[in-house]
């Protein structure tokens, strides 16, 4: 409670500061938190405010400091960190840094607590009685740290529990416990290792990163038939059509003779049927050859070698596909530029 009264008094010069009302006990950090952190004593020796924020910012900073103190009292250290951080951004008072360091201790974020206490020592005056306690806290917290040597075959970034630590190879101070260390480098596959460390110890982690396989894309020119192949297919198809026409004519003549001749025999009927069957087979072959010729024509090179004009735009690319179906086939074609 006395600490918050002092915080109110440091907002502006004494001549312009009205006498603060006595805040409730929950408005300041408790004398001792769940993690043993000691609240700043009300000695009135804190440094002057480095900047002169306006009255509205000071009022908002006090409100957030009081809210953070209440969160700290309830051991809700994450919310306390958020409130203290916002209060310090509005009003850079060293007392807020001291409280923020205590909140980081509650979260067991040792490195951040040490950094925040050090920032407090850099900002607070030499006569501040909290300096001695902050120095003791830093010394005790450093005893909880272990040194991890990260060795890697290429320059890489080191992440601890998903948070960036720095560059490797290098040494890192980690707090006691079990941690997941991940090493990442551009062009290499990342590697992950798990380490369990105790305070004051040293461990070495070695990583051998492997280069990321490069996908090789092979671009090929679209397949094209030479023009003689198309002409040959066209000739065979034409010949099959001629054969089918001859057989169809023969079948028609035999059928007419069979129908017009009195006294028909079974031999005449069978002969007419055979002629019709041969005509149907020839029709199927001619149809198949026609489809094949069409596909070959779609995939045939349009220009002869050496006859292309550099100024002439390339012809559209034609792709075709034949899908077998029951009793036939489906031909699809696509023109693209």
Describe this entry's structure for a reader.
By secondary structure, this protein is an alpha+beta fold. It folds into three domains: 2-142, Alpha Horseshoe (Serine Threonine Protein Phosphatase 5, Tetratricopeptide repeat); 145-207, Sandwich (Immunoglobulin-like), CATH 2.60.40; 227-336, no CATH class. It has eight helices and nine strands. The strands form three sheets. Strands 3-2-5-6 form a four-stranded antiparallel beta sheet, with no helix packed on it. Helix 2 packs antiparallel against helix 3, helix 4 packs antiparallel against helix 5 (110-123) and helix 5 (110-123) runs antiparallel to helix 6 (130-142). The longest helix is centred in the C-terminal third of the chain and has 34 residues, at 227-260. The two termini are 80 Å apart. Residues 1-51 have low confidence and may be disordered.
CATH architecture descriptor text of the largest domain: Alpha Horseshoe
Which stretches are low in confidence, meaning pLDDT under 50 for 5 or more residues running?
1-51
What is the CATH third-level topology name of the largest domain? Serine Threonine Protein Phosphatase 5, Tetratricopeptide repeat
Q: How many whole angstroms does the radius of gyration measure? A: 45 Å
* Protein structure class: alpha+beta
**Within the largest sheet, what's the order of strands?**
3-2-5-6
Report how far the terminal alpha carbons are from each other. 80 Å
């Amino acid at each position: 409670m006395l600490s918050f009264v002092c915080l109110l008094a440091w907002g502006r010069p004494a001549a312009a500061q009205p006498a603060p009302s006595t805040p409730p006990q929950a408005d300041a950090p408790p004398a001792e938190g769940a993690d043993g952190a000691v609240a700043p004593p009300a000695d009135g020796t804190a440094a002057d405010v480095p900047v002169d924020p306006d009255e509205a910012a000071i009022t908002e900073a006090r409100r957030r400091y009081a809210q953070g103190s209440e969160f700290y009292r309830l051991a809700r250290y994450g919310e306390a960190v958020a409130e203290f951080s916002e209060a310090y951004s509005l009003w850079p008072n060293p007392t807020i840094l001291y409280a923020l360091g205590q909140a980081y201790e509650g979260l067991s974020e040792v490195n951040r607590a040490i950094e925040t206490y050090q920032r407090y020592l850099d900002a607070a005056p030499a006569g501040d009685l909290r300096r001695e306690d902050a120095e003791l806290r830093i010394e005790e917290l450093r005893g909880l740290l272990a040194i991890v040597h990260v060795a890697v075959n290429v320059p890489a970034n080191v992440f601890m529990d998903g948070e960036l630590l720095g560059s490797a190879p290098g040494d890192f101070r980690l707090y006691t416990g079990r941690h997941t260390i991940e090493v990442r480098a551009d062009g290499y596959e990342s590697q992950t290792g798990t380490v369990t460390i105790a305070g004051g110890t040293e461990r070495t982690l070695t990583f051998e990163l492997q280069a990321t396989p490069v996908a090789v894309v092979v671009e090929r020119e679209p397949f094209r038939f030479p023009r003689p192949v198309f002409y040959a297919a066209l000739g065979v198809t034409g010949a099959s059509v001629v054969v089918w026409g001859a057989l169809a004519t023969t079948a028609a003549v035999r059928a007419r003779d069979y129908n017009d001749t009195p006294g028909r025999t079974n031999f005449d009927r069978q002969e007419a049927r055979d002629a019709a069957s041969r005509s149907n087979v020839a029709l199927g072959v001619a149809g198949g050859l026609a489809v094949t010729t069409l596909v070959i024509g779609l995939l045939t090179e349009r220009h002869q070698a050496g006859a292309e004009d550099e100024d002439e735009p390339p012809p559209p690319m034609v792709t075709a596909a034949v899908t077998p179906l029951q009793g036939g086939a489906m031909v699809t074609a696509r023109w693209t530029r």
